[in-house]
Write a structure and sequence with these properties.
Layout: E1 19-23, H1 27-40, E2 45-50, E3 54-55, H2 61-66, H3 71-74, E4 76-77, H4 78-85, E5 88-91, E6 93-98, E7 103-107, E8 109-110, E9 116-118, E10 121-124, E11 127-130, E12 135-136, H5 144-147, E13 149-150, H6 154-177, E14 185-190, H7 194-209, E15 223-228, H8 240-253, E16 256-258, E17 263-267, E18 270-273, E19 278-280, E20 283-286, E21 290-291, E22 310-311, E23 317-318, E24 321-326, E25 331-332, H9 346-364, E26 378-383, E27 387-392, H10 394-397, E28 401-404, H11 405-424, H12 426-442
Parallel strand pairs: 1-2, 1-11, 2-5, 11-24, 13-20, 14-15, 14-20, 15-16, 22-25
Antiparallel strand pairs: 3-4, 6-7, 7-10, 8-9, 12-21, 17-18, 18-19, 23-24, 26-27, 27-28
């Protein structure tokens, strides 16, 4: 099927193919269009709309930020992927909806010089799936938006890596000029969930290797990482024993862990917490909370939860429109009897993509949609090369089957492999896993440019 960025807005729907539009090419959205394209691509018009040209699995962003993963090797180009799986890719950003006429409004796009690349236009849809993901929630903290880096996408991760390497270079040069200098790279990470904990550990793994890449006098002892968590412990999704184990491991590395510490304000080089303490930092990362992107608040009457995420029924259809579904981190879905919504995790996005696919098959053939059922398979957190911890089969054993060490690392690695199979199929997925093994041997350990 041809790939085009031209808008599709003809007036007579009876002469057109059925059109299914998926907005957002993250873990759930990309898997969904792959499956829809494979099934319908020659009969229906399946379209993916995304503001980026490539996909990177969001749980890997902390490795991209630390430089231990070269995203250029792991990213998926939408234009080549759509050709293989018989859907179309449109480059653009969601701006709004016209539900009466079933149209997605796409914002104008500009090149790096500020010149208009693609004008504002509309895409018609018969069924629409919103999979735009979530963004970090700064809870209105003064100075957070101006002075923090949010690891919501690859652009932010690349920005952090560049600033990190520049600061490491400054410290290295200062030590070469004066070997007695107590120069350090000071990093504050706000949020003790999986992203914050994994990033803290990954930074020490990266710093240990920098001496082999031109910074001969720099090592992990020059890092000063502070992890700030408002709650009473790290990783609240894990059993308390594993939470304590993660904290102990981080403190062994040199991370200063502050619990029950609410951030009150942030400046360019300081984080102030509720007890009056001020933490100096050269780099500040916000990794706490998830909310829906602002665009969801202006979607022609679709209802949103207080978190800014789209409210859906159990079939994943939005409460106001049966022809619009939402999946992934942008979706507020309550299971029967649950007190909290389905958590914004990669496993939830994968499960929602599967349900959305089957429901679209049913809806396009005139049948009713079936309810989504979330299965909590547990949580895993990687402390880089130092340790991996987690709990398995959360629904079956109450999240108490704790695993650590090599077994946990094996399961953690398998999650990414399952993602590769979901978006590429088994044969190509296996090939990419083998290529990844070769790259671990022949490629540099760190991306330092």
């Amino acid at each position: 099927m041809p790939n085009s960025d031209a808008p599709s807005t003809p007036s007579n729907r009876r002469d057109l193919k059925m059109q299914i539009v998926v907005v957002g090419g993250g873990a759930g959205g990309l898997e969904l269009v792959r499956r829809l394209g494979a099934r319908f691509g020659r009969r229906y018009d399946v379209i993916l709309l995304d503001k980026n040209h490539t996909h990177i699995w969001k749980p890997l962003l902390h490795e991209v930020a630390a430089g231990t993963l070269d995203a250029n090797l792991d990213e998926v180009g939408y234009r080549t992927h759509c050709h293989r799986w018989h859907y179309r890719f449109f480059y653009g950003t969601l701006e709004g909806l016209d539900r009466a006429n079933r149209r997605v409004i796409v914002a104008p796009m500009y090149d790096e010089d500020g010149r208009e690349l693609i004008g504002r236009h509309a895409l018609r849809y018969d069924y629409l799936v919103l999979a735009v993901g979530g963004v970090c929630n700064d809870f209105g903290t003064p100075g957070a938006r101006e002075h923090c880096i949010f690891l919501d996408d690859r652009v932010q991760a690349d920005r952090f890596r560049t600033r990190l390497l520049n600061q490491c270079l400054r410290v290295s040069r200062a030590m070469m000029a004066d070997p007695t200098a107590d120069a350090r790279v000071r990093i504050a990470i706000i949020g003790g969930g999986a992203t914050g904990v994994e990033l803290a550990a990954e930074l020490y793994s990266a710093a240990a290797g920098l001496r082999h890449y031109g910074l001969e006098v720099f090592d992990e002892r020059r890092l000063e990482v502070t992890l700030i968590e408002a709650g009473p412990r790290l990783l609240p999704q894990l059993p308390e024993r594993l939470s304590d184990a993660a904290r102990e491991e981080l403190e062994k590395l040199g991370v200063r862990v502050l619990l029950d510490s609410n951030v009150t304000s942030i400046t360019a080089n300081e984080v102030r917490i509720g007890n009056g303490e001020t933490i100096a930092a050269d780099l500040i990362v916000w990794a706490a909370g998830v909310k829906g992107p602002e665009v969801l608040r202006n979607l022609d009457g679709l209802r949103i939860a207080p978190s800014g995420r789209l409210e859906v029924r159990q079939t994943l259809q939005t409460t106001e429109d049966d022809r619009i579904l939402a999946i992934g981190d942008c979706c507020h879905c309550m299971m029967p009897g649950a007190k909290v919504p389905v958590p914004p995790r990669a496993q939830a996005a994968h499960q929602m993509a599967t349900t959305a696919y089957h429901n679209l098959v049913r809806l396009t053939s005139g049948r009713t949609a079936r309810p989504f059922v979330y299965h909590d398979h547990g949580s895993l957190v990687s402390l880089s090369r130092f340790s991996t911890i987690g709990s398995l089969m959360g629904n079956l054993v109450g999240g108490k089957m704790a695993i650590e060490g090599r077994l946990a690392r094996l399961v953690y690695t398998s999650l990414y492999r399952l993602h590769l199979f979901a978006i590429h199929g088994w044969l190509r997925g296996l090939g990419l896993i083998l290529i990844g093994k070769v790259n671990q041997v022949v490629r540099p350990r760190l991306k330092v440019h």
